[in-house]
UniProtKB/TrEMBL annotation:
<dbReference type="Pfam" id="PF20028">
    <property type="entry name" value="VMAP-C"/>
</dbReference>
<protein>
    <submittedName>
        <fullName>Trypsin-like peptidase domain-containing protein</fullName>
    </submittedName>
</protein>
<dbReference type="InterPro" id="IPR045450">
    <property type="entry name" value="VMAP_C"/>
</dbReference>
<feature type="compositionally biased region" description="Pro residues">
    <location>
        <begin position="456"/>
        <end position="466"/>
    </location>
</feature>
<feature type="region of interest" description="Disordered">
    <location>
        <begin position="360"/>
        <end position="473"/>
    </location>
</feature>
<dbReference type="InterPro" id="IPR009003">
    <property type="entry name" value="Peptidase_S1_PA"/>
</dbReference>
<dbReference type="Pfam" id="PF13365">
    <property type="entry name" value="Trypsin_2"/>
</dbReference>
<feature type="compositionally biased region" description="Basic and acidic residues">
    <location>
        <begin position="430"/>
        <end position="455"/>
    </location>
</feature>
<feature type="domain" description="vWA-MoxR associated protein C-terminal">
    <location>
        <begin position="506"/>
        <end position="751"/>
    </location>
</feature>
Length: 762
């Protein structure tokens, strides 16, 4: 396609600029510092290492820009708006942080230049050919243009390394990296490496700018949509390439014009979101994508999808878009989500109606074809997975009628979910959408190795002052949320901790996502054959993996549960009191409260997970289903009064849940839990710092009364995890003194299911 290649080269060249000193710096003005390119009107993307050496006080973050159009005769000025690198002036910058955004100081200049079209997808690129266009200094000190074609030899996270046969000279850092077959910028040149070719960053690293990225992406998509119909536009070139012989274009194809129109509507929708509001969340976007695709999908993009545009970019096979119907399903789900946030989606809805009608006409003209998968029963034709009930803000049946634009509320209240097996409505007192927005705490500092806290004291439950039953305040207000189940479009984070050496307290760990009833994703862990992690470093090691996992599956109004599978001898580990940012004192900042305050945290048995016995698992499943079929749950107090422990646990009545005021590490409590596990029970509660051999006292009575309140509010076993979570939240945020239930631990050990564990690709 020589004609298309020439056109692509001209489009890239028109948007690429030299970066040098500002006009006020006469001594440096003629020296090339690096390359950059326009990603949106007035916005230039380049490498952080290009601008980092020149951020001194005298220049005030200002740079000179010279390009084929803007600054061709007289350089224009740009200022630094953002940089992903947060370190100092020295040291290597990681690939995913080596980006900077500049903005033209003169708005009039922003109206004259061209912009590249940067991809919304993050496909695997190993072996693909890439086109690089930028500037360098020749031997005489003159600025020259450099164009090069090179194949990607290594794709590792955000890094893309090129074959060594092509050499990249100094000055090319910040150049656009283009995929010729799709006509899209897919990366940013980082460096030339002598004897090793060059290296670049994937364009998805741009998502690291957060809200600034959303602003730039919206401006980019609106600008390109405004040039539809022009023969010299990026979209026109992409459309010609897509229709070229051998590209497999069909009546059901999602065309570059479709893509540009859809992204324009999403950009307009995104611009309507108040800057202080959180409309799109990665977990919500992942749910929308899974529902649109109707098949297995790994939610492990690096980095995560941040805006609706990124979710659109997940609907590709490499760089090739899936069928149009998949994109239309996704966009329908976005409109439903946006309407539940009070946004006006009329233009996008009207375009979707017309595009779907056109697709139906093409299908009729093309003749019969394989039938589409049946729609989910909760909303005909909504594009969800069969039998899948979406979260409330994604459900068409539970969404209120869309008001006129002038009457839009700022943020809607929570909506009801279809009951399965209990009502999945998120109460207002649990829903962060109904709470005032918290200030952004900023980036968390690296805490370093966690000091070994040593043995924990055994204070036991303290009676303290008279305490109101905190959880009972919400008993009449709302139903607790049911635990994620197959078809709920919700996922669970599972952390497994295995003891390697009890002498020096070393552990191995893994973090995975369980997409209930679908598949599992292994996200990370320690070396399976290694010596293990010292206990003092364990939380520091798992913290990053847990944070990334939560970000993937937390929905806008419902945090994903955390299941921690522990060895039996470590059931006393207070995982619900862990802080992912443990350098900040407890309760100093709500954003840094313990895990059990932020989400449901439950304990599971590692032995059951790692060494399952088919017969015992069957008995475990029978007990589990019997308990969850009971309309009411109640306490089975352990150890029982006047009755053998074994007889009490073995012959418990339907709906009874074993409960202890002793800890799992204390002799009597450990023996009782051994009976609970031995009789194949899956649900129990105990006090993390319960009393030892002394008789029960007033504190125990208060604890059991509090647990009785939890059971009355929960009513069913599948609501216990969220009910205990609400109790922990209330204690942390509304109770100033000690509380008898502050150390309450929930053992919630689901029976094993036949699911596939899928490794996350690099």
């Amino acid at each position: 396609m020589p004609d298309l290649s020439d056109r692509l080269g001209r489009l890239v060249g028109a948007a690429t600029v030299q970066i040098h000193a500002p006009k006020s710096d006469a001594a440096e003005r003629t020296r090339l510092w690096g390359t950059g390119f326009f990603v949106a009107p007035g916005w230039i993307l380049t490498c952080a290492h290009v601008v980092r050496p020149y951020l001194d006080a005298s220049r005030k973050g200002r740079f000179g820009v010279t390009g084929a159009v803007v600054g061709a005769s007289t350089p224009v000025e740009a200022r630094l708006e953002g940089m992903l690198w947060r370190g100092g002036k020295d040291g290597d910058i990681p690939f995913e942080q080596d980006l900077a955004l500049l903005r033209l100081a003169d708005d009039a200049s922003a109206e004259r230049h061209s912009c590249v079209w940067f991809a919304d997808w993050a496909g695997r690129t190993l072996g693909d050919e890439r086109f690089v266009h930028g500037y360098y200094l020749d031997g005489s000190g003159q600025v020259r243009t450099r164009e090069a074609l090179a194949k990607v030899s290594v794709a590792d996270g955000a890094a893309r390394r090129f074959e060594p046969m092509v050499q990249f000279k100094s000055g090319l850092s910040g150049s656009p990296v283009v995929a010729p077959e799709s006509g899209a910028v897919v990366g940013v040149m980082k460096a030339g490496q002598q004897g090793y070719g060059g290296a670049a960053m994937d364009i998805t690293a741009l998502r690291g700018f957060g809200e600034l990225y959303a602003e730039v992406a919206a401006a980019h998509d609106v600008w390109h949509h405004g040039r539809l119909g022009r023969p010299d536009s990026w979209v026109a070139l992409q459309d010609r390439a897509a229709r070229a012989p051998g590209r497999g274009a069909t009546a059901d194809a999602w065309t570059p014009v479709d893509r540009a129109t859809a992204l324009h509507h999403l950009a307009v929708l995104r611009r309507a979101v108040p800057r202080s509001a959180e409309s799109e969340k990665p977990g919500d976007i992942c749910v929308l994508v899974r529902q649109a695709m109707g098949r297995r999908w790994l939610s492990n993009s690096r980095p995560l999808p941040r805006i609706w545009r990124d979710g659109h970019g997940e609907l590709y096979d490499g760089a090739r878009p899936l069928e149009a119907r998949v994109f239309l399903r996704y966009l329908r789900r976005v409109t439903e989500y946006a309407e539940s946030d009070g946004l006006h989606t009329g233009p996008l809805t009207a375009w979707l109606d017309a595009r779907e009608a056109r697709l139906s006409g093409k299908r009729e003209a093309a003749g019969p074809r394989s039938p589409a998968p049946p729609p989910a029963p909760h909303a005909p034709g909504n594009g969800g997975l069969p039998g899948e009930a979406p979260p409330a803000h994604l459900d068409t049946e539970t969404r209120p009628a869309h008001p006129a634009p002038e009457a839009l509320p700022a943020r809607p209240g929570p909506q009801a979910l279809p009951a399965h097996p209990g009502p999945e409505v998120l109460p207002a007192h649990l829903d962060p959408r109904t709470r005032p927005a918290r200030p952004d705490p900023g980036p968390r500092p690296d805490p370093g190795p966690r000091p070994d806290p040593g043995p924990r004291p055994d204070p036991g439950p303290r009676p303290g002052p008279a305490v109101q039953p905190v959880h009972a305040r919400a008993a009449e207000a709302a139903e607790p949320v049911a635990y994620p189940h197959p078809g709920s479009a919700r996922s669970i984070v599972v952390l497994e901790i295995e003891e390697v050496s009890c002498e020096d307290r070393r552990f191995r760990w893994t973090v995975r996502l369980d997409h209930i009833g679908e598949d599992e994703e292994l996200l990370g862990g320690s070396d399976a054959g290694g010596p293990g992690v010292p206990y003092r470093d364990l939380l520091h090691e798992v913290g990053e993996a847990l944070t990334g996992a939560f970000e993937r599956v937390d929905l806008g109004g419902s945090p994903a549960p955390l299941e921690v599978a522990l060895p039996y001898d470590h059931f006393d580990e207070p995982v619900h009191q862990w802080q992912l940012n443990h350098t900040v004192p407890l309760h100093q900042d709500p954003a840094k409260e313990p895990l059990g305050v932020h989400r449901p945290v439950v304990v599971r048995s590692l032995e059951r997970l790692r060494a399952p016995d088919p017969e015992r698992n069957a008995r475990h499943a029978d007990r589990w289903h019997d308990l969850h079929a009971a309309e009411r749950i109640s306490s089975l107090r352990l150890p029982p009064a006047g009755k053998s422990l074994q007889a009490a646990v073995e012959g418990k009545a339907p709906g009874e849940v074993p409960v202890m005021c002793r800890s799992a590490g204390e002799r009597t409590g450990k023996h009782a839990l051994g009976e609970v596990l031995g009789q194949d029970h899956g649900v129990a509660l105990w006090h993390g710092t319960g009393h030892a051999g002394s008789p029960c006292g007033d504190a125990c009575t208060a604890l059991h009364e509090q647990i009785g309140d939890v059971f009355r509010v929960s009513r069913r076993a599948d609501r216990l995890a969220y009910s205990v979570w609400q109790l922990r939240r209330d204690i942390a945020r509304h109770n100033n003194g000690p509380h008898p239930a502050s150390g309450l631990v929930l053992f919630y050990d689901r029976p094993l299911e036949d699911t596939d564990v899928l490794d996350a690709p690099a």
